[in-house]
TrEMBL record:
It comes from Streptomyces argenteolus. It comes from the Bacteria. Pfam families: Acyl-CoA_dh_N (PF02771). This is Acyl-CoA dehydrogenase family protein. Residues 11-110 form the Acyl-CoA dehydrogenase/oxidase N-terminal domain.
């Protein structure tokens, strides 16, 4: 069996060890700098899943997951900024739109970096952003609650809902312009460093040529729910980073061993299922594994705080950063199905653990 690491995982490890991890505490407080984005562009990692014909690496999904795990475990804020980019790349690679011809190559090579503005479409039938045909293009109106990477990325993939219940995805320049205004960067409990803003859209007009996809909302929601049922590699990345911290602290051998064995098992099962050829099958099991991954990540990050004691409350402590990053991952990319599966599991865990006290009925 060939055990040589894929060049991209080697590249991700180098970036993680030489740049991302050593500066993660500072970046968490100060924000992801353009120099980190430049390093990502130069690394070739932005083209991990892009077709080779367009200058990408065409790497298998298993490698893409490993790369994302490594980056998230090193600096979750930088990971989050760059992870947005991969959705437009994957969608463009499958699309037959003219946007593919103009954008796929620069996105695959890292000449351009993309962000996304589409989580709000999950709120349907509430149309937070409407898309209306106008001339030879579309106008977008409404409010995008979350947009990450403002000032760092170049283009955004924006989604709105039409009167015909179609989801319309189009590319726009990621900068203030007539019809598009960004809020100041948000101050958040975690990931403030990701330069996340909200966007006000007031008649932003985009030409037909920038439209990448139009799909019935129902069809899109089904695909989105299936995609959102899988465990995120970032959850494993943060969990393993917390375990490494735990392992460096004395008196934690048994706890870290138990958590690592369980995490390895859930990761293996989740990734095996992610390779299943039918993404809309085994949804209950996918959601179960996604939830188990959350429980283990919370256990690992909490254990790192507990083992490190009071000094983990210092903002220079990686344990508190990982715990906050883990908290953010609990809601990142949350669909209605993932939300209720997670809530059910949290309740069940508490009910199971409740042992009646003597004399209690
Ligand atoms: C720091 C940060 C950065 C982000 N950056 C981006 C970004 O760059 N681009 C982007 O597109 N998104 C971004 N998001 C959005 C992120 O993916 C969403 O937060 C996540 O999907 C949770 O959704 P929500 O908070 O927008 O919606 P919520 O209203 O919390 O809904 C989440 C899901 O649960 C469902 N739901 C909500 N309430 C109920 C209920 N009572 N009963 C049943 N179902 C319910 C909703 O329909 C939806 O599917 C960011 C979020 C954060 C916190």
């Amino acid at each position: 069996m060939d055990t040589t690491p894929h060049p991209l995982t080697g590249q991700a490890r180098r970036l993680a060890e030489d740049l991302l991890a050593p500066h993660a505490q500072r970046i968490d407080q100060e924000g992801v700098p353009l120099s980190h984005v430049d390093a990502l562009r130069a690394s070739g990692l932005l083209g991990t899943s892009a077709p080779t014909a367009y200058g990408g690496a065409g790497a298998p999904d298993a490698i893409a997951r490993e790369v994302q795990e490594i980056l998230a475990g090193a600096c979750c804020s930088t990971w989050f900024v760059q992870t947005q980019h991969h959705t437009p790349v994957r969608l463009l690679a499958r699309s037959e739109s003219s946007a593919r011809d103009s954008l796929l190559r620069p996105l695959a090579t890292g000449a351009l970096m993309a962000g996304i503005a589409y989580a709000h479409v999950r709120a349907y039938p509430r149309a937070l952003v409407s898309a209306t045909p106008q001339g030879r293009g579309w106008r977008f109106d409404g409010a995008v609650p979350w947009y990450t990477g403002w000032g760092l990325n170049d283009v955004m993939l924006l989604a709105g809902i039409s009167d015909e219940a179609e989801v319309v995805f189009a590319f726009a320049d990621a900068r203030d312009q007539p019809g598009l205004e960004a809020s100041p960067p948000m101050r958040l409990a975690a990931l403030s460093a990701s330069r996340t803003v909200s966007l006000k859209l007031d008649g932003l007009w985009l030409p037909e040529a920038s439209v990448m996809l139009r799909a019935a909302q129902e069809t899109w929601a089904r695909h989105d729910a299936a995609r959102g049922a899988n465990a995120s590699p970032a959850v494993f990345g943060v969990a393993y980073a917390a375990l490494r911290l735990l392992e460096q602290t004395s008196g934690t051998a048994e706890s870290s061993r138990t958590l690592r064995v369980r995490l390895d098992e859930v990761r293996w099962r989740a990734y095996t299922l992610a390779e299943h050829p039918e993404p809309e099958e085994h949804l209950a099991e996918r959601l179960h594994l996604r939830t188990q991954a959350y429980h283990l990540m919370r256990a690992a990050t909490t254990a790192a705080v507990v083992a490190g004691g009071g000094r983990t409350m210092d903002l220079d402590s990686p344990a508190q950063r990982l715990a906050r990053e883990g908290m953010f991952l609990l809601i990142q990319g949350q669909t209605a199905q993932a939300r209720s599966a997670h809530l059910r599991s949290l309740t069940a865990a508490v009910e199971l653990r409740h042992q009646p006290l003597e004399g209690e009925v």
